[in-house]
Amino acid sequence: MPIDDAKLNKVSDILAQAAPDADRGDVFPWTGIRAVHEDGLLESTVGKGFGGEGATLADTAHILAALGRGDPSVALISAMTIFTHLGEANRSRWPQDLYRRILNEAKTRPILLNAARVEPELGSPARGGLPSTRARRTSRGWAITGTKRFVTGALGLTHFLVWATTDDNPQRVGTFVVPAESAGIHIIQNWNSLGMRASGSHDVEFDAVEVPLEDVIDLVDTSAGTQDNRAHAGITLALTAIYLGVAEAARDKFIQFAHQRVPANLGFPVARTERFVNIAGEIDVLVSGARQLVFDGLNHGQDDAAKLIRARILAGRQLKEAVHIAVGALGNPGLGADLGLERHFRDIQSVLVHAPQEDTSVAMLGRAALDRGAPPAPKTSVNSAPEPIRKTG
Fold it and tell me: Which letter, b or e, does each residue of 150-181 get, where b requires 16 or more Cβ atoms within 10 Å of its Cβ?
């Protein structure tokens, strides 16, 4: 898919203008979402077989970085829909009639999709386990009951993709497509985060919400239903591009301040001082280096999950550090809302919070490294007993 940077920058500017109000308020960020929809970005990854442009994962990261420069909360809400279409383009899983209806609706209004997977007791599925949310068979299909946490964009979604376990014997697990206007859905407006405030990642309760029998994705045996973090490594790295956009916006604010600030005792902008030159260089190394990591991984590492996981961790750490340096260098102006760095500082804290979280990702790499360096298992004869485990200390 050819990327039109001029169009992306125009959408990014619209998001940036609306972002401060969205960050302060308790309303859904419709201004930004409508701009993303009107530019066709929500459906950018729809497969060519469905009449879409077929944007790749690297294309998606390019789009998300631009949206993240404007408003990362809008970018995150949009990403959930964009990734859903990308998944369907790569591996057809949706009921085809339902998917075509959704695409047809998207021609006239923003259709927002998001997976509802995290639960109060289970936590993130990235750490293993199955949902307690139940899909009970009825005479007309399914009745979905359960509570989901951190459902990004909850107040504006048109469809919840609810991960649930069936009451079949044997049980199965799948993702049920639940229209947001269905009876029995209650959104608990409890999102009160340090950053990404406009994402509205509230809890959602489902009370016997009816779903047609065929409106389910990947209904499989529970033994095959757990999340594969390595398989999602590319998506997770592309998601990091949102925060690349945040750090680039913070860098631009720092540079803006450096050129505009003219202390009376200097008589020229602080951008010409050695201190600010060095700080700008440090920020550039971290932010531009993170961009290289993200896009090198997506363009050349699609078959190497470990490379994608490493790139995501390293890029995330660098982006977070870059924004911290920018804010710390400016002192009070960096922490004030007027310049705008303060919001970027809050938003960047979420860069490595998305599942699988940093500790889970590091553990995956650590186990793989230890397995590679493990000595060969000793050979034992049929007559020898295994060496007992001895306590130390």
Answer: bbbbbbbbbbbbbbbbbeeeeebbbbbbbbbe
